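Input record (Table S2, row 269):
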Amino acid sequence: MTIKAHQKLLLTGAAGGLGQALRERLKANCEVLRLSDRLAFGVAAAQEEIMLADLADAQAVSVMVQGVQAIVHLGGVSVEGPFGPILQANILGLYNLYEAARLHGVKRIVFASSNHVTGFYHQCDTIDATAPARPDSLYGVSKAFGEDLSRFYFDRYGIETACVRIGSSFPEPRDRRMLATYLSFDDLHRLITACLTTPVLGHSIIFGMSDNAVTWWDNRCAKHIGYVPQDSSDVFRDAVYARTSAPDLSDPVAQFQGGGFVVAGPFGA
Ligand code: NAI
Ligand code: 15L
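Output record (NAI complex):
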């Protein structure tokens, strides 16, 4: 099966950690990969275009979106912090992106949501996509907004979105919590590919995780996407246990799925 489902694909947040990890991988999904970020990050290679844009700038976002058939949206504030930048990038910026998609006829978006939409569930809870949001931070609230905004644009305008509640996507798990939340870069690419190629995506929420032995999330509501993880955090388990100490179970950081996000801040405006 070809995974080249779109002629021109836009990747936002291209200068960030996941953007860099996906830059080469996503070229298999399109003829031309348009890369965007607020920050400059070098020159375009073969099969690439670079278009810088601040998500808060509606005009720049419109130009960025024009001419693509699908979007992988990673751009934005990726951790808890002051509300001002979160508001600009993750709330106003997301509105600008969906308005541009509507105006330019883009019909499918993969939105990098986050496990922090549901970070205030306990680590002994197993939740699926029907569980009500319980954001653990203003950052998590902004991702919950993104999930609602994208649902509105699907119901009203038919723009399909996969809200991928990414767990922890790094080269390897950094602590014991991430053994449950780990998503390898290759599995992230498999997941995005599934979102871009499944015949009917609709508006879907899927937890972005590898095939980890310990998990808090159940993806049964997203079977239609056809994502099958092939990696697992289990190969890192012994090393993570050896370099970390047992969690203090009276600490909220160890009780809730969101880990340190449940106590981060307040940061003010
Ligand atoms: P990152 O912080 O490394 O990259 C985010 C990129 O967005 C940066 O290059 C930044 O310059 C850009 N950006 C920020 N504000 C912007 C604005 N106003 N306009 C345009 N660009 C802007 O984050 P990372 O780890 O690459 O994550 C990518 C996405 O995935 C983020 O949306 C994050 O919330 C989400 N995510 C990542 C997880 C992970 O484990 N890496 C877990 C859950 C969600
Ligand atoms: C996220 O949403 C962040 O973007 C990422 O930096 C990690 O902190 C991740 O969640 C996590 O929960 O480990």
